[in-house]
Amino acid sequence: MMKLAIFGYGNLGRGVEAAVKKNPDATLVGVFTRRDPKAVKTVSGCPVYKESDLASFKGKIDVLILCGGSATDLPEQTPRLAKDFCVVDSFDTHAKIPEHFAAVNAAAKATNHTALISGGWDPGLFSLARLYATNVLPDGKDYTFWGKGVSQGHSDAIRRIDGVLDARQYTIPVEEALEAVRAGECPELSTREKHKRECFVVLKEGADPVAVETAIKTMPAYFADYDTTVHFISLEELKRDHAGLPHGGFVLRNGNTGNAGNKHTIEFRLALDSNPEFTGSVLVALARGVYKHFTAGDYGCKTVFDLAPADLSPLSREELLAHYL
Amino acid sequence: MMKLAIFGYGNLGRGVEAAVKKNPDATLVGVFTRRDPKAVKTVSGCPVYKESDLASFKGKIDVLILCGGSATDLPEQTPRLAKDFCVVDSFDTHAKIPEHFAAVNAAAKATNHTALISGGWDPGLFSLARLYATNVLPDGKDYTFWGKGVSQGHSDAIRRIDGVLDARQYTIPVEEALEAVRAGECPELSTREKHKRECFVVLKEGADPVAVETAIKTMPAYFADYDTTVHFISLEELKRDHAGLPHGGFVLRNGNTGNAGNKHTIEFRLALDSNPEFTGSVLVALARGVYKHFTAGDYGCKTVFDLAPADLSPLSREELLAHYL
Prior knowledge:
The structure is a homodimer.
Chain A: E1 2-7, H1 11-21, E2 26-33, E3 48-50, E4 63-66, H2 73-81, E5 87-88, H3 97-110, E6 114-116, H4 125-136, E7 140-146, E8 149-150, H5 152-159, E9 164-173, H6 175-182, H7 191-194, E10 195-203, H8 209-217, E11 227-232, H9 235-241, E12 247-257, E13 262-272, H10 275-295, E14 300-302, H11 317-323
Parallel strand pairs in A: 1-2, 1-4, 2-3, 4-5, 5-6, 6-14, 10-11
Antiparallel strand pairs in A: 7-12, 8-9, 9-10, 12-13
Helix pairs in contact in A: 1-10, 2-3
């Protein structure tokens, strides 16, 4: 039995909590929060503790799953907590991964713990798809398309605009580009040619829709380089039609072998009703791998690239050989 | 530099030979054959040796890639050669994998070598797709569809029928079943509902087409449980239109998380112009992993489940962290 705990109880924390129930070899010690534990009610009824209570749980938690955000939470939390616990996080600021890895690796190695950063689906399963595909087709080109799905970062960016009450932004692959790549072509695609953005916006009373639409469509990095559609809807419509957090996407690699012009396409696709529940499920599987490496005395920071697929499975070698190969 | 050699020079051996050229960290020592080496000319011009010459290559080959067949070659060759070399094979008789693993593991462990069995794409990449998907979505159901592609076994079965000069058989997923699963449904599918079979047959002079067609369609295991179409064509048409060995397929898993009925689909798809060239490419990537484990002193038999994704890559941890995660 693997004893897990959750640090941070937002959408992702609840996703991890739900995932633990689907894994009979895992049990949930509790949820740790920065909020007042009395104000937090868990879905499963598992106990809630203050962050400061963690000190008394040393040795009672096999893997602590960190469910904070990548912007400010994880860069501070993961190295700090890796000194006392085996940890898993879903750090997703791609450009800062080497720096985060170095900090977590140093902390975990110094105290003989095992950590894994950047779990989830991108980075995570999509990274695996890119790496396996590149390993087997070194002469090729890969593509990642995201969506259709809700981007929290882009939704937040719209909410920060003056006059906006709430918003939901969908990232959508451009169908023609996706189909060309899926058919084996290797086009050069600009940002605009790969994805489009669709926004559902609730205005505050008296706000100017033209000004808001312009502010969205000209926002650098987030929207200016994309074909963006803006729909103004009521708060009721937003709650009714856009309450979910679906996501997904495609990793594709087209590659060549031999002298006869043979081509090959490798495609990995995810279609997810709930981004946080799926991400939570991936983190629990990765926690199993971390726990196995820790038990074997293999300390330090890992990524999805460092764990063998069998490490993520509760099954024995015999079962895997007989039924999964 | 990783020194590879090929044992057995048919379609797969040539596929491995082509793959070595795409991997700058690999070099090909030579091809070993049971035939007269003078009668074998390699595509790349690499040297050809007799099987019995292998003894003098001990210590000069990092990984020997075995390209024989699963029916009679590999069960004998892989355990025997694992005593003197690190080896990789593509043993694909699913039911006999545990037995083959045990034999190869014993041989490799006894002499401190590292081996990998059942590499390729199924078993191989498809096994990885099934295992990763099951690990992250334990509450779910998976499906494997093969094709459209040439099945050598089924083509051979037709060739053994009296009156048949040559034949090519395509395995094709049933579109309705595939699309239902891709859309997230979890139907119970019979053999007939999953795949259909299309046969292109060249008759010997004077053969009875009705008798041949009946013999094909009623052949147990191979065709009787499938909707099978038989086309009679000329030898010229067979050579012109059916010379390639394309294959591919789909691994899908639909799974559930949480209490709100959220569903998720994970899909892995391959579309391959050349089954042997792609399989050869996978074997070379796996040879890299075998070589790394051997160098680290990790002996015995492995499968794709036991090698971390980073083991298959020529890139450093720093490069992987910066560019692939």
